[in-house]
Design goal:
Length: about 200
């Protein structure tokens, strides 16, 4: 019981502190990231890269199936390589995901692999579109790194790892307005127009 209460309490505390001033909140837990987004009236959409395999020239664009209208574009100077649900660079260099429209949050399982896609301990460096970032040690394919903006929307995320290794993503998640919220805003706009007439 206590383990379930702590994440909810932490998310509530973050929600209150985030409202006080605009900024970036970072997460290292995917469940807490999703809970925070849900508590803020948003939805999380995730790309698993399971439909990609082999070498791709850069840029490569894909859609978030569970967030119609939202897409991602991955870029890396030497191209991209996908294998078994993992998206990586073809050379040891940084990878950037840009979004066709801004998102409230972004996160995923980002780590380093060797040429055979074996996970390698690394120093992960992440930079968001507003210049804010994160540096930390990652040694697992299940490690989660996420960010939620209480101000400007996020339009890109770039990450790199130690020299000689390949930046790799197992998942890429974005936070977008919940589908019901978008419909509600549209309906509110129609009601507002009727009142003005």
């Amino acid at each position: 019981m206590l383990n379930r209460t702590l994440p909810v309490a932490a998310a509530s505390a973050l929600a209150l502190s985030g409202a006080a001033s605009a900024g970036i909140i970072s997460f290292n837990d995917a469940s807490l990231f999703a809970l925070f987004a849900t508590n803020d009236g948003k939805a999380v959409a995730t790309e698993s890269f399971s439909s990609y395999s082999g070498f791709y020239t850069s840029p490569l664009t894909g859609n978030f199936v569970d967030a119609p209208g939202y897409s991602w574009t991955a870029t890396a100077t030497g191209g991209l390589f996908a294998d078994a649900g993992l998206m990586s660079t073809n050379l040891s260099e940084s990878m950037t995901f840009t979004f066709n429209q801004g998102v409230h949050g972004v996160g995923g399982q980002f780590f380093a692999t060797d040429i055979n896609f074996n996970v390698q301990p690394t120093s992960l460096r992440v930079t968001l579109s507003d210049g804010s970032g994160f540096i930390g040690s990652i040694n697992s394919a299940t490690a989660f790194t996420g960010f939620y903006s209480t101000g400007a929307l996020i339009t890109s995320i770039s990450f790199s790892v130690d020299s000689g290794e390949y930046p790799t993503a197992d998942t890429l998640s974005i936070v977008v307005p919940a589908p019901g919220a978008v419909a509600l805003l549209g309906a509110a706009g129609l009601v507002g127009r009727r009142r003005r007439r």
